[in-house]
Amino acid sequence: MTTAPTFSKEERIVSNLLIETLFEKGNSHSLTAYPLRAVFLKTEHHEGCAPVQLLISVPKKRFKHAVDRNRVKRQVREAYRKNKSLLEGKVNEDEMLLIAIIWLTDKHFPTLDVEKKMISLMKQIAKDKA
């Protein structure tokens, strides 16, 4: 029996240092597949970190209620989890890829649409990797 891909804690950006590195001016690259925007950066590998790390941001400005923000984050997380194989193997052993996914609208989208947009972004990141 094969196990389904998971989205573990090691795959999440939790370090403030990594978040600051990702959003520093001029270093990172940005792609948009409405309603998602991806900010990504290839950097040197840190000990104990997964080769690809993800941060999901759904601003309170877009959805006032936490239940709405959580639903969107769940959709994005699931889309990433199911399709992260698109990025695996694209990063060298001494490097890591930091990705921030930012929700751009105040509207909900069907899960299939979110997944299609996520796949589109992940394919572009795999191709464009800085």
UniProtKB/TrEMBL annotation:
User: Broadest EC class?
Assistant: hydrolase
Superkingdom field: Bacteria
Q: Name one GO cellular component term.
A: ribonuclease P complex
The record's annotation in InterPro entries points to:
Ribosomal_Su5_D2-typ_SF (IPR020568), Ribsml_uS5_D2-typ_fold_subgr (IPR014721), RNase_P (IPR000100), RNase_P_CS (IPR020539)
What EC number is given for this enzyme? 3.1.26.5
GO molecular function terms listed in the Swiss-Prot or TrEMBL record? 3'-tRNA processing endoribonuclease activity; ribonuclease P activity; tRNA binding
Instruction: State whether keyword Signal applies.
Output: no
* Reactions it catalyzes: Endonucleolytic cleavage of RNA, removing 5'-extranucleotides from tRNA precursor
TM regions (residue ranges): none
Q: Name one GO biological process term.
A: tRNA 5'-leader removal
What are the protein's UniProt keywords? Endonuclease, Hydrolase, Nuclease, RNA-binding, tRNA processing
Q: What does this protein do?
A: RNaseP catalyzes the removal of the 5'-leader sequence from pre-tRNA to produce the mature 5'-terminus. It can also cleave other RNA substrates such as 4.5S RNA. The protein component plays an auxiliary but essential role in vivo by binding to the 5'-leader sequence and broadening the substrate specificity of the ribozyme.
Q: How does it assemble?
A: Consists of a catalytic RNA component (M1 or rnpB) and a protein subunit.
Q: Per the similarity annotation, which family is this?
A: Belongs to the RnpA family.
Q: Per its record, how is this protein called by name?
A: Ribonuclease P protein component
Name the source organism. Answer: Xylanibacter ruminicola
Lineage per the UniProt record? Bacteria, Pseudomonadati, Bacteroidota, Bacteroidia, Bacteroidales
